[in-house]
Structure formats: C-alpha cells, structure tokens
Design a protein that fits this description.
It comes from Hebeloma cylindrosporum. The chain is α+β, with helices and mostly antiparallel strands. It has 2 domains: about 100 residues, Glutaredoxin (3-Layer(aba) Sandwich); about 140 residues, Glutathione S-transferase Yfyf (Class Pi), Chain A, domain 2 (Up-down Bundle). About 50% of the residues lie in helices and about 10% in strands. The strands form 2 sheets. It has a 4-stranded mixed β-sheet, with helices on one face. The protein has a two-stranded antiparallel sheet with strand order 3-4. Helix 1 packs parallel to helix 3. The longest helix has 22 residues.
Length: about 250
C-alpha cells in the first residue's frame, strides 16, 4: 500500500524545498517505500492536521499548538504521524526489511551529531530565511512573513545581515561547517558519509539543509559555489552521493 506524504510546495521546478520535509523524503526514497506526495500550503497545514487527526509537532512560545510538516499517512496501519524524526523511527520499526537510517543501533549517536550540527550552522538561517520565503507560493508567503515577524521580531527584509555584519556572519557559518567537516574526516576516508560508505540519519539531515541552500540560491549562485567549494568539496559531495534519493514523487 502507498503512503501519503504531506509536503510544502514552492515555486522550485521540483516543488520540494523544506529541509524538514526533505528529511522524510530522503528517508522514504532511501528505504524504497512507495508513497505519493500531497502538497499543502503553509496556512492549510493546521486545518488539515486537525481534520485528519495528525498530531501536533510542538507548542508555540505562548503555549498554543503548533502543527507542521512533514506528515505521513500509512494505510497499512491506519497511522498518521508528523515530525521527520518520529516518521523515520516509525518507518524503521514498521518496515525492518528496508535499509536502516539508524544502523547498528546508532540512534543516540545520530541524534547527538544532528544536535551538534545544527549548533554549528546557526549563522546561516538569517541568510537563507528571506531567500526561502521568496520561493514560496503567494498564499504561503503571506503566512510565512506574518508568522516569522512574530517569531523573529522583524520584517523579512530586515532578517538578512548586511555589510560587515554579513561578512562576519558568513565567516561564522563557514567556520561552523569546518568543525562538522572535521567530524566527517574521522570516518577514515572510506566514503562520503559519517559511517563511511553507509548513509544514515546524520547524512540525511546534513543533505536536507544543503539541498535547501542549493535550491533556494541556485546551483550557479555565488552562495552555493562558495559552500560547495569548502572543505575539499565535502558538501556538494554529500548531495551527489545521495542524489538518487532526492527524487520528488
């Protein structure tokens, strides 16, 4: 039976763009589990989740319910789930005969890596957030701008740093990726992934951020050329190694 995968559309030719939903998409493709994508604009996410009984993701700062994608519906079990990690854990247990994203019981180590990875790339979000917003469809742009103004306390045009601040913050991002590159280098050079030749959740998380940068800025942009040149091409190499799993269906 075919899983329904709920994702957020963009104006990108492949439509997929969100790093959080890409984590679930990479996982489904890696496992070879049949699925079909249902596209949901940002303002429609909460009503859809409430209608279908998809669990909320978390709570907003003021205590209200927060619903987000990715989400899936698995007709073989009748289960609705949201959150990329929850989905990945569910797919591991429900489809044990498929390739594992947490091989050899490494889930605790994988999650520790992911936490450290995000901790080292925080400087990038001020750059990518306005650019990603511009790639959304009009209904989602309005919602995204309005909600991010509440969360960030500023208009979208004021999010990205400028001048010397931008130069310093971009260097901070580069230095953060250099730290992550040093961890990858500990794999003994046996392959492009954390575990060498075996892709896993940590690589999927990294790739899901990288593919956002490539899609939003474009392959020929100065930003992506910069990133893909760092650390002896490590980051472009990870995307290339996972290329067959980025397909949008």
């Amino acid at each position: 039976m075919t899983i329904t995968f709920y994702d957020i559309p963009s104006t990108n030719p492949g439509r997929a763009c969100s790093p959080n939903t890409f984590k679930a998409r990479y996982t489904l493709n890696f496992k070879g589990i049949p699925y079909v994508t249902e596209w949901v604009e940002f303002p429609d996410i909460e009503p859809l989740c409430k209608k279908l009984g998809i669990p909320l993701t978390s709570k907003n700062a003021e205590g209200s319910d927060y619903y987000s994608l990715p989400a899936i519906y698995d007709p073989s079990t009748g289960v609705y789930l949201s959150d990329s990690l929850v989905i990945a854990e569910y797919l591991e247990k429900t489809y044990p005969g498929t390739p594992q994203v947490f091989p050899d019981n490494t889930i605790a180590l994988q999650l520790s890596f992911v936490s450290a990875f995000y901790g080292n790339i925080g400087a990038i979000w001020d750059f990518i957030t306005p650019a990603a917003c511009a790639k959304l469809n009009p209904r989602s742009i309005e919602y995204y701008r309005r909600t991010r103004k509440i969360w960030l306390g500023k208009e979208m045009e004021d999010v990205a740093p400028k001048g010397e601040a931008a130069v310093a913050q971009w260097a901070q991002f580069k230095n953060g990726l250099a730290k992550v590159d040093a961890w990858y280098a500990k794999n003994g050079g046996e392959g492009p992934f954390l575990l060498g030749k075996t892709p896993s959740w940590g690589d999927i998380t990294v790739a899901s951020c990288l593919i956002l940068f490539r899609i939003v800025w474009g392959k020929d942009s100065e930003e992506w050329k910069d990133i893909s040149s760092w650390n002896e091409g490590r980051w472009a190499g990870i995307l290339e190694a996972l290329k067959s799993y980025e397909i949008v269906v």
